[in-house]
């Protein structure tokens, strides 16, 4: 008998996550909406169930910034299901303008939610992913990583773990960019780890998707004005959701792993360390290249070290 296909989507109650949950549900998947706010998410879940005529859209509580919540979610999922086909790390913290905040486990909140949380959840669900026929993982990254074409940009590893005595110059905007770069490096590193094991992991570089009023409210006033203007030019979230779907289900992506993909579903290539003027323009304005920073082993190792350190705390 064919196994029922199961997808977990984090942050599936709004924006791209919600659009993706609807698309997977329309295509007969069992969809696990992994969300932190159950009251708000329940309304969305019911709507998706009725619109898609799919009763297998389930809501489960998950706060991506909390190790305890990630562990509890994984336990509950493992108790209910025998395998996991697709894991989409869509949830993210990007409340630009907010002050420095720590997660319950003493990790800077942006990094906790956008990098460490996804790594821990993947690690805990690895056994179930291995039970699937064609397991795939997607990390939602962002074109904000282009900032790293500037050689002055480096991940500020000093502000990630715990002590708040060094928050000078901290900005959620920068940390968000750092976290999305770290996610790309984690993608590359995980693919290396799993070579030959059949689990595919890729990252999607999202250039923009129309944000809801609620999402805009989460950023502070000055940032909100900028985001509102950007929003005028962004495509609807359904566009990105359809790329999530293709990357996680299509034959085209069956053997692709450890890559950063652009919004034309093309594999992106590393940019040049010392580009000439033409190349520089191509790198900054196009979507064919990612910053060479992402390929530097010492940077990847630092991200890996942070993830391993968190794993030991479980
Ligand atoms: N929209 C864009 O222009 C754009 C551009 C580049 C990249 N992206 C990326 O695309 C992804 C989706 O973004 P979106 O635009 O669809 O934003 P969104 O509508 O604000 O969705 C973000 C989701 O993440 C959830 N979330 C945040 N912190 C969480 C936590 N600790 N635990 C569990 N869930 C949490 C939110 O839940 P609550 O409702 O509970 O807050 C919400 O469901 C994100 O990874 C984002 O970085 C978006």
TrEMBL record:
<comment type="similarity">
    <text>Belongs to the short-chain dehydrogenases/reductases (SDR) family.</text>
</comment>
<dbReference type="Pfam" id="PF00106">
    <property type="entry name" value="adh_short"/>
</dbReference>
<keyword id="KW-0560">Oxidoreductase</keyword>
<dbReference type="InterPro" id="IPR002347">
    <property type="entry name" value="SDR_fam"/>
</dbReference>
<protein>
    <submittedName>
        <fullName>SDR family NAD(P)-dependent oxidoreductase</fullName>
    </submittedName>
</protein>
């Amino acid at each position: 008998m064919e196994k029922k296909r199961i997808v977990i989507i984090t942050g599936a109650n709004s924006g791209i996550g919600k659009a993706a949950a609807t698309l997977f549900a329309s295509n007969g998947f069992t969809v696990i909406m992994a969300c932190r706010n159950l009251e708000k998410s329940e309304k969305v879940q019911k709507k998706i169930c009725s619109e898609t005529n799919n009763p297998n859209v389930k809501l489960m509580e998950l706060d991506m910034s909390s190790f305890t919540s990630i562990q509890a979610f994984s336990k509950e999922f493992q108790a209910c299901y025998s395998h996991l086909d697709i894991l989409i790390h869509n949830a993210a913290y990007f409340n630009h303008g907010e002050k420095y905040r720590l997660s319950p486990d003493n990790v800077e909140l942006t990094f906790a939610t956008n990098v460490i949380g996804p790594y821990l959840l993947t690690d805990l669900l690895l056994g179930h992913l291995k039970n699937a026929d064609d397991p795939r993982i997607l990390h939602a990254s962002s074109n904000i990583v282009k900032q790293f074409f500037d050689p002055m940009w480096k991940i500020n590893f000093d502000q990630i773990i715990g002590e708040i005595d060094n928050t000078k110059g901290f900005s959620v905007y920068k940390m968000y960019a750092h976290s999305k770069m770290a996610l790309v490096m984690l993608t590359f590193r995980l693919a290396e780890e799993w070579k030959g094991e059949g689990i595919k992991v890729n990252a999607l570089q999202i250039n923009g998707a129309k944000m809801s009023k609620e999402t805009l409210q989460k950023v502070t006033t000055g940032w909100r004005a900028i985001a509102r203007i950007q929003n005028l030019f962004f495509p609807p979230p359904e566009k990105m959701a359809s790329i999530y779907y293709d990357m996680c289900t299509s034959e085209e992506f069956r053997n692709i792993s450890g890559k950063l993909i652009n919004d034309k579903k093309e594999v992106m290539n590393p940019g040049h360390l010392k580009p000439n003027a033409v190349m520089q323009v191509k790198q900054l304005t196009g979507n064919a290249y990612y910053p060479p920073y992402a390929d530097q082993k010492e940077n990847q190792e630092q991200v890996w070290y942070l993830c391993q350190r968190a794993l030991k705390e479980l």
